[in-house]
Amino acid sequence: MATPTVLPALPQNWHEPASPAKSISPVVRRQLLPAGPAYLAHVRRVVNKLSFEEYDKQVEEEQKRLDALQADGLNGEDDLGVGDEEESPELLLLDPKEWKKQDHYQVLGLSHLRYKATSEQIKIAHRKKVLKHHPDKKAGISNSTNDDAFFKCIQKAFDVLTHSEKRRQFDSVDPYYLALEEDTPTASDFKGKDKDHDFFFKAMGPVFEREARFSKRTPVPMLGAYGDSKETVEAFYDFWYNFDSWRSFEYLDKEVNEGSDSRDDKRYTEKKNKSERARRKKEDTVRLRSLVDLTLGLDPRIKRIKQEEKEAREAKKKNKAGNTPAELKAKAEEEKQRAEEEAKRKEEEEKVARAEAKKAKAAAANAAKKARRAQRAAEAS
């Protein structure tokens, strides 16, 4: 049963407060706009038709993904397998002032990916290298603050590879692939291996795969296999003889002399760089054309196609009348039967001739016998 509450009496010195001097502000109707993380979460749930449990699970998975991207990569699980290449002593001694001579992919530990490396892999590799080679970290270990040369190389490599145009220029003259271009197979490597079709495709196939990265047009046809049709082979050589390359050589431009404000000096350097780029571009075009010429001359598919065409021409020449295969078969059988009949006829004629010769020989023998008898009878009389 409820107990009634009795309020205490007011103090004797209590007085009702006076009304405020200022008037109360009038009521204003304001429109409230939905905003904030709670409202956004509500919108995501409604749009994706998720329950609270499903939405919480999705948020948790997204948070795990973000944590993986922001991981330091030292545990080897969330680093996409990049940035763990060991640095050689020569690499650690690179001079940041000669940054154009350095291999940016090797500096960031991306030698196995190179132009195939994604922007996300480049960022993760850079983060791992920074954590490993930051000057502050090394200063605490070696009590020296001057060991930051390789760190500057790391920063320069990151700047180049995260800038689309600079990366494109570096990929055009990647030192790793320049070395491979010098080892491209020559005609002397194929001497005595005319019948070894597998060797041709194993030697020349990777060369065209490397060159394909410079093509403006896609898809790029690869070398293929020995059994390719004539149309496929012709399409391959037509594409490569008209290859449209985006390769440029700006990365090798010479810098204007440091501290020079001379306009003439800058113009001369720019003119020289432009001339060198044109020369290198022309040499690269000639190199690629020579490569395609060499491949065409050694391609076993060309010999196979020519032999097939020769056989087709000979068959067409024999079948000049335009007979069908069935007619040709019937004609061959007819000729065979005619030959058999002719042989049989000749055999019979020879048999008859032998019989007549035998009869003639017997008649001659009888005549000679009668002549001898007549002669003996005449002598006796």
Structural description of this entry:
The chain has helices spanning 37-48, 52-69, 89-92, 104-107, 119-133, 135-142, 149-161, 164-172, 175-182, 197-211, 230-241, 263-298, 300-318, 325-380. It is mainly alpha-helical and 381 residues long. Helix 5 (119-133) runs antiparallel to helix 7. The protein starts with 36 loop residues before the first helix and ends with a helix. The relative contact order is 0.04.
Characteristics:
381 residues; mainly alpha
- Strand composition percent: under 5%
Give the strand tally.
Answer: 0
Gap between N and C termini: 194 Å
Structural class: mainly alpha
The residue-averaged pLDDT reads: 85
* Number of DSSP helical runs: 14
Order of helices and strands: HHHHHHHHHHHHHH
Regions with pLDDT < 50 over 5+ consecutive residues? 72-77
Largest sheet: none
- Rounded to the nearest angstrom, the radius of gyration is 48 Å
Categorize the overall geometry: elongated
Helix content: 55-70%
